[in-house]
Amino acid sequence: MYSLRLWSVRHARLLESVYRMGNPLIVAALRRAHRVFGRRIDRPVTALERAAKGLMFDCRMCGDCQLSRTGMSCPMNCPKTLRNGPCGGVRENGMCEVRPEMACVWAQAWRGAAQMRHGDAIRDIAVAVDHRRFGTSSWLRMARDD
Amino acid sequence: MTDPSPLWHPGDPADPGLPLPILPGHVSPGRFERVLRAGLFAVTTELAPPDSADPADVLTRAREFDGVVDAINATDGSGANCHMSSLGVCAILTRAGYSPILQVSCRDRNRIAIQGDILGAAALGVCSMLCLSGDDVSVGDHPEAKPVFDLDSVSLLDTARVMRDEHRFLSGRRLDSPPRLFLGASINPFAPPADARVHQLAKKIAGGAQFVQSQYCFDIAMARDFLNRARDRGLLERCFVLMGVGVLASAKTAKWLKSAIPGVHIPDETIRRLEQAEKPRAEGRRIAVEMIQQLAQTPGVSGVHVMAYRQEEWVGEIIAAAGVLGDRRPWSPASPPFEQRTSA
User: Fold this and answer.
1) What Å distances lie between residue B63 and A54, B15, B59, B78, CA to CA?
2) Average pLDDT, chain B
């Protein structure tokens, strides 16, 4: 949801703390669940991740989550799916050149990263996304060390 | 006999249109890299690829720039409009002895096609490449097309660098002969988010950019502020900066550019000058000349990239009026071969 997506960026620091605390717990729980139930957990876990991150970040389920490194602004919402920063067409009011009604996700990303304790990670180069992972769960990938 | 040019080195072919030996510290066999690394003020421009399958249409356009520019950018479907491919244009230009810069946009091709084109371009004598994300398909003449964007400008730079320096594809498969390309990127210091633009330059340099060409610069104060911040971060020692210079035909063109092309910043003062001018086209050229002179006096600027769409015939006059080349005349296929020294 667009308004929640903007809220998430404004509260990037809070969400970073939640992520730092919550993520190891989620991964540990999934690791245990995987040991017991195997691949049967894939569908419900993926659906849960899609619902939660979809609501908060308009997550597109690229399967290689960058949110903690992009100021809690999902780069896949960029119409050009740029994963390494804004293009040169950002409008003077900070809106997207392709979708003028939407704030540039990378202008948002830098705003979010500026608040975060480990916001400097936005400066690292993100390698091109692996398209085989689309629609799969980033949480499960971390749990399985894929 | 004296050395006819600071660009000439013992062992070079008499015809600088041929691939040159790669000097120590250089990555490409091209003249453009030689000009920048020799510390000379470089001038580049762009060639609008024709809507035509006739190579003469490319060469006619290129000849406008003879003796004026050090390299010619071949745009890649700029504005998401369909034209002759940049690779096609570059192949025609290198055959004639020009020094083209291959523009590669991520909009239309995936990593398989792009890596293939990089090898093909290098094999055809292309020595410089500009890595771009590209305009979205929605702004062009085929808005119904599928946007690709498999890579972005930074991962494209990284890909070309890996191919050149690590002699492999992204997949890891080995290259028998790597593409010797001088790698460039675009920057836009005039668009938000202002603070992030320097970080973006740093990211592109980390990806592999050795030169950058900027969006139109009509605001020297903003450009200098950006360059100061880039210098403070030590970026200007690692990358040559060529600032973009536009040639405005009228106040109407300026207003259209400003409103229709996101990311183009034109101060009201510039528009006022054009409105009040008796001859707006001449005033537009004067604005370009003054901007080039101001940029040439700005520390950290290694050259200018003149974008004079539909005013290409004026580029030579503008560069001459700016006086930034001194008595240097960039080599073109129309020039005589470099005189070679008879004794060392």
Assistant:
1) 54, 17, 6, 21
2) 94
Write the residue in A90, A104, A123 that is nearest to B202 by C-beta: A123
> At residue B13, does pLDDT exceed 80?
yes
Give residue B339's pLDDT band: very low, low, confident or very high (50, 70, 90). Answer: low
Band the pLDDT of B233: cuts 50, 70, 90. very high
Q: Which residues of A touch B151 (CB under 8 A)?
A: 128
Q: Which two tokens stand for residue B33?
A: 């890299």
Q: B240 forms bridges with which residues in the sheet?
A: B211
Question: Would you say B6 and B329 are in contact if contact means Cβ atoms under 8 Å apart?
Answer: no
Contact A88 B202 (CB under 8 A): no
Calpha distance B42→B139 (Å, rounded): 31
Cα R_g (chain B), whole angstroms: 19
CB < 8 Å from B in window 17-76 of A: none
B193 and A87 within 8 Å at the Cβ level: the answer is no
Measured over the CA atoms of residue B5, residue B8, residue B10 and residue B16, the dihedral's sign is negative
Interval B264-283: pLDDT, tens: 999 999 999 999 999 999 99
Interchain contact A101–B (C-beta under 8 A): no
Domain boundaries, chain B: 31-322
C-alpha B41/C-alpha B6 separation (Å) is: 12
Tell me if B111 and A83 make a contact (CB, 8 A cut-off): no
**Separation in Å, CA of A131 to nearest CA in chain B:** 9
What average pLDDT does range A111-130 have in this prediction?
95
- State the virtual CA torsion across B304, B186, B128, B50 in degrees, nearest 10: -80
- B96-112 confidence digits (pLDDT tens): 999 999 999 999 999 99
Nearest to B86 by CA among B130, B45, B42, B43: B130
Which of the 8 DSSP states describes residue B38?
T
**Pairwise CB contact (< 8 Å): B170 & A79:** no
What is the CATH T-level fold of the domain B31-322, as seen in this structure? Answer: TIM Barrel (3.20.20)
Nearest-CB residue to B192 (from A85, A98, A107) = A107
CA B306 – CA B300 distance, rounded (Å): 17
The pLDDT, as a whole number, for residue B16 is 83
